[in-house]
Amino acid sequence: AQSVTQLDSHVSVSEGTPVLLRCNYSSSYSPSLFWYVQHPNKGLQLLLKYTSAATLVKGINGFEAEFKKSETSFHLTKPSAHMSDAAEYFCVVRAGGTSYGKLTFGQGTILTVHP
Amino acid sequence: DTAVSQTPKYLVTQMGNDKSIKCEQNLGHDTMYWYKQDSKKFLKIMFSYNNKELIINETVPNRFSPKSPDKAHLNLHINSLELGDSAVYFCASRKQTGGTDTQYFGPGTRLTVL
Question: Cα(A15)–Cα(A81) distance, rounded to whole angstroms?
Answer without folding.
Answer: 5
